């Protein structure tokens, strides 16, 4: 009797067909997964990097466009001993249509050349995704009694408020308007739930109470890469200078 070797018997035609189909299915699935991974990687690059590039360009262009409409001022900060900050009521700022730029925010702790455009409204696509800080409609305008409240992205789209957690009590925040330099000083920060809208009330945290101070508030997402909470930074007006006096010394203040 002939004995078989260790080789397996040839598979039946139906079994061969099933294996080929399974192999092809696995190949197709593998190709789809690779394609999906590539698309996801491109999306991450676009979301994390490219939107920052385009947002940064838009920030610079918006600042230039806003400042072009302002009167020219000396390029170097004025000595505060020569031009001390005024503490009377600063010039008023007129309301503007949604999406319009009307002020520039300078945060020396983020760099003495750091500047952010301020646009009316907090619509994501029209305002925040352009790299600007958006002014909450209904809150005070720059320099006015009440709460000049701003929102901005902390990551992607220019990440205007990326370094908000670096601000310290006493840090200057300089708001440039058509008629004045407004110097605010940071007073506090906190983390709140997204629905805690009282932080942008005229008196932060006390809705319904009449305001007496001239405040500024930054709001942005917290922690990074999450919308679970909001980081809030408050400040109060320390004083102001007319544009004719030149930029305030605080603009060049480095911690």
Automatic annotation (TrEMBL):
SUPFAM superfamilies, per the entry: Sortase
Keyword flag Hydrolase: yes
GO molecular function, one term: hydrolase activity
Keyword Membrane: yes
Catalytic residues (UniProt): 153 (proton donor/acceptor), 221 (acyl-thioester intermediate)
Domain of life according to the entry: Bacteria
Transmembrane segments: 28-49
InterPro entries: Sortase, Sortase_Class_E, Sortase_dom-sf, Sortase_E
Protein name, UniProt field: Class E sortase
Source species taxonomy: Bacteria, Bacillati, Actinomycetota, Actinomycetes, Micrococcales
């Amino acid at each position: 009797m002939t004995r078989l070797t260790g080789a397996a018997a040839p598979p039946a035609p139906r079994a061969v067909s099933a294996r080929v189909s399974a192999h092809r299915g696995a190949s197709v699935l593998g190709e789809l997964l690779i394609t999906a991974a590539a698309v996801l990687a491109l999306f991450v690059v676009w979301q994390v990097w490219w939107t920052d590039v385009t947002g940064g360009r838009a920030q610079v262009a918006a600042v230039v466009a806003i400042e072009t409409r302002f009167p020219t001022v000396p390029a170097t900060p004025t000595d505060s001993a020569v031009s001390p900050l005024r503490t009377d009521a600063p010039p008023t700022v007129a309301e503007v249509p949604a999406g319009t730029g009307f002020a520039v925010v300078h945060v020396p702790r983020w760099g003495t050349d750091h500047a952010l455009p301020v646009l009316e409204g907090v619509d994501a696509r029209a305002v925040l995704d352009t790299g600007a800080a958006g002014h909450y409609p209904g809150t005070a305008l720059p320099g006015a009694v009440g709460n000049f409240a701003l929102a901005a992205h902390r990551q992607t789209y220019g990440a205007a408020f990326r370094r908000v957690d670096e601000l310290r009590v006493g840090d200057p925040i300089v708001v440039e308007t058509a008629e004045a330099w407004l110097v605010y000083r940071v007073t506090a920060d906190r983390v709140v739930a997204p629905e805690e809208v009282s932080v942008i009330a005229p008196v932060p945290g006390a809705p319904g109470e009449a305001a007496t101070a001239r405040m500024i508030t930054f709001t942005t997402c917290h922690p990074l890469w999450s919308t679970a909470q909001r980081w809030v930074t408050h400040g109060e007006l320390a004083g102001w200078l007319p544009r004719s006096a030149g930029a305030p010394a605080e603009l060049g203040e480095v911690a």
